[in-house]
Amino acid sequence: MEDATGNKDGRDIELLKIEAEEIYDSIKYGSETQRVTKTAIHMPSQIVAPIFNEALVGLNDEVESIIDRLTRGSNQFDVVAIVGMAGLGKTTLAKNVYSDPSIKFHFHIYAWCTVSQVYSKHNLLLQILCVIDSRSSDQYHKMNEDDLDAKLYQQLKGKRYVIVLDDVWDIEGWNLLKHSLPDDCNGSRVLLTSRFHNLSLEIRPDSKPLHLRPLTNKESLELLQKKLFAKEDCPPTLSEVVLHVAKCCKGLPLAVVLVAGILATTQQDCWEEVTRRLSSTIFVENEHCMKTLEYSYNYLPDYLKPCLLYLGAFQEDRDISIRKLSRLWISEGFVQKIEGKSLEDVADNYLMDLIGRSLVMPAHRRSLGGIKVCRIHDLVHEFCVTKAKEKNFIRILNVDDLDAFTGPSAGRKLTQISIV
Fold first, then answer.
1. Which of 66, 274, 324, 339 ranks highest by number of CB atoms within 10 Å?
2. How far apart (Å, rounded) are the C-alpha atoms in residues 94 and 386?
3. Contact 304, 385 (CB under 8 A)
4. Average pLDDT score over residue span 287-310
5. Considering the chain, what is the average pLDDT of its residues?
6. Contact yes or no for 346/336 (Cβ under 8 A)
7. pLDDT at 307 over 70
8. Residue 215 DSSP symbol
9. d(CA 71, CA 93)
């Protein structure tokens, strides 16, 4: 595809320049999941603890219960599992536990590792080691899998540690790591989140998982009001509308957040009309909230729809560089020219709009302000992939080969590209 000046080479050079500028900042490469297509751009994401400031409502007792299980009880190595359907807030709960001062005080070592559906042992080991000792990340990237395995065992040996394994889908992910985790009878723990109850029992038959419950109507209302009004009170004229929406969400935090994203970008005098179109079937007809996401997508301005779907070309549960994303949107022609604004500024506005609608989450901030990387919920990713395939915008060849391909989209072509 040609850039705004008709110069294809200029576009490629600019993208390579941006990638070179950020290589120093990147500390994780999908080394075992590289793709080869017409244009291949490697987009390494960073392995550092995400921003732990997500709203937590109604789960304080669960937080305390998990912290108690992690920091007390037997000195034998143990696995504590949080299980529940998608969208219930398992990761948010785990983040709040992980960031609690008592965890930092009790354990010598703590690390966060996102497993997800597509993973490799090399990548999982690299994630954990780079959190434990970020200063040696360059050294770790040069190691093979066996060396990483031995290094992690060495780093953990004799230490009381807690490792969070987020979004585990199958027993194999656990089997790849378990021999790297020493049991020194010193109270070390693994905190695991999964959609699958039986998985936690396979890992630890004698350890009872925490089944995350839905929010009550009151808690759903509290979360919705936090998202819509921050610390302000809900205007009396909107109280009935907001209460009705909270009840429709049926206790699913993700549904609450998504609907808040719709209402927050809609004039308040139109909320009642919007709410009339909403029903419980929109939110929770199935566990994946796909109808809610469909509704959010349909409410997007047309120029934002391809920007959102483009995120389906990134690997699930991976950080996305804002600078690279902006340049890719621009190079693909998604960003409209606005007089008096650079294309980069317009792209930034697009991103902030998607964040305001709770479809994109800021993950890390720059030291001088602004967002450095973002990510999307795995269900949003699933929706983007499904919708993009439906619109002939992205094709998934298999779980290990995620490609965008040359195909029509609203009368234009999407350059064949692989983002890993």
1. 66
2. 28
3. no
4. 82
5. 77
6. yes
7. yes
8. P
9. 16
